[in-house]
Every structure is written in C-alpha cells, then in structure tokens.
Specification:
With 119 residues, this protein is mainly alpha-helical. It has a single domain, classed as Lysozyme (Orthogonal Bundle), CATH 1.10.530.10. It has five helices and two strands. A two-stranded antiparallel ribbon has the order 1-2. The two termini are 29 Å apart. Keywords: Hydrolase, Signal.
C-alpha cells in the first residue's frame, strides 16, 4: 500500500473544486506510530550505548542498539552494511524491529528493556 502525502494546497484545491469538505489523514498523523516506535528505540539506544548509533567499543556489540554480528546478519542487516555501527540509525531501527517481531518483544535487550519497562 502506498500512502500519498497531501499538501494544504492540494486539499484546498480539492475542497474548492468539489464544493465539499474533504477528510484526509495528514502526513504527521500517519507517521505518529512510527515516530512513537522510533522514540522507544532511541530510549533503548540511550540505555545500551549512550545513544551513540556509531558505537564500536571493541566488546563485540555494535551500533546504538548494541547488536552482535550474528544477530545483525541473521536478520538481514548486511543489506545495509556489514557492521551495525556503520549503518544509519534508521537502518539499525529497521533491523531491531525485525528482531523484536521475531522474538516477540524486547528480550534481545534484556537489561535495558527491564530498566525501561519494555515488554
């Protein structure tokens, strides 16, 4: 499904032409769930790595969400970059969401998910 973004001008023209009010979902309203989800991942990254999406401390965990390499590879992270810390924040979140769905929650981040009260 493709979502179309309507500008105020587009909506105004549609209303003027049709002569009736038009109800449309604004881009901000449509993006709200993703923004909320991203905020959770940002909180988790602050706990895991101090919010450093490029973290590579030599401990075998990489990026803002401290992926180990095998988890990153198993969930397709290499389509973005060989190592998580070299992928963008958005790319790391995309893989984290896949891990979350595959494992049914935030269990891949046990200490921080408990600390933050995440299921």
């Amino acid at each position: 499904m493709q979502l179309h973004r309507f500008t105020k001008w587009t909506v105004a023209v549609a209303v003027a032409v049709s002569g009736s009010a038009l109800v449309a979902v604004t881009p901000n309203a449509a993006a709200a769930p993703n923004d909320d989800r991203a905020a959770v991942w940002d909180r988790l990254a602050r706990c895991e790595s101090g919010g450093d999406w490029a973290a590579n401390t030599g401990n075998g965990y990489y990026g803002g969400l401290q992926f180990n390499r095998s988890t990153w590879v198993a969930h397709g992270g290499e389509r973005y970059n060989r190592y998580p810390h070299r992928a963008s924040r958005e790319q790391q979140i995309a893989i984290a969401q896949e891990v979350h769905e595959a494992r049914g929650g935030y269990g891949a981040w046990p200490a921080c998910s408990r600390k933050l009260g995440l299921p």
